[in-house]
Amino acid sequence: MLRAYKYRIYPTEEQKVLFAKTFGCCRFVYNWALSLKIEAYQERKATLGNVYLTNLLKSELKAQHEWLSEVNSQSLQSALRNLDTAYKNFFRNTKTVGFPRFKSRKSRQSFQCPQHCRVDFTSGTISIPKAKDIPAVLHRRFRGTVKTVSVSLSPSGRYFASVLVDTDMQEVPATSVSRSTALGIDLGIKSLAVCSDGRTFENPKNLKRSLDRLGMLQKRLSRKQPGSSNRNKARIRVARLQEHIANCRRDNLHKITHALTHDSQVRTICMEDLNVKGMTRNRRLAQAITDASFGMFLSMLEYKCRWYGVNLVRIDRFAPSSKTCGECGHVYRGLKLSERSWICPECGTHLDRDLNAARNIKEFGLKALPREPGKVKPVDCPTADDRPVS
User: Fold this and answer.
1) Catalytic site includes residue 186
2) Residues 84, 186, 291, 363: which is the catalytic one?
């Protein structure tokens, strides 16, 4: 099974110069190939393949620009492969994937080394072609074969190395679905995740807590003279705060998904198939939804369920999980978003909005389970179960 391990590295000044050259060369080759692809499609409706562009790189582009030979040639070819993958993904699904964009030196920089990479845990170093023994903080050990190493530079000026390893670990086969080991989860803004068994994972709201500090730093940045050293220092301060917010958010999501997938009493998780992109169109809730990061939560939960043998069932996003009474099945159509609790007009039961939704999600998922255990796919569920519905 392929797994990635990300480490922070501390290159020397000489290695930083080499990384800067490699970043620039990979960015130049990527933009050059993208312009050729656009030109060929506009003029002849033709598509230039990766093999053709690679041969053109070796025969013509390197002869015209000799400085391309100063960096690892495999990194340049990896940039072409990444462009070819992005180009094919766009034409495969134009609604979900955007068209490849030209790379800028102001955005995040990265390059890949697919061969001759080594990680030494004894000395605490990572070696790639033309850059040996890069000091790194190897806080996580692994066993397996190193496939690729991706070196990146964040906007805050920190270097990282992402090591893709072919490990000897195997995915745990999924167990049979049982009602006693099933769990329904309702995502929200006030509480990030509410489980059908009563557990609640709070939303830390990392961005909201840092908005005042972020606004102050951005205001200071706007007052600095463009191109000055003070403006660059102010930009790094803003980038470090934004990176801190993202790290806190990612750390919290990893802890929640780890707790859910490593619970021995939970072998099936039922979730809503949320349209996160559509939810962010609400201008009143867009910032809060983005801060909660529902999409990242769902993607983390999906691959961790696949790793650890947990069944993941996604119910229909239009199922009235919050409006359905968990006792009698009555659907209360007049429920507002501001109402965090409500009383069923049919049976008089007092219901907590989020907990009731989590229990209904569990019932909807168990009613429309896929036949093959462990298969992850959205399923259609009824508006309620077999109980009477108004």
Assistant:
1) yes
2) 186
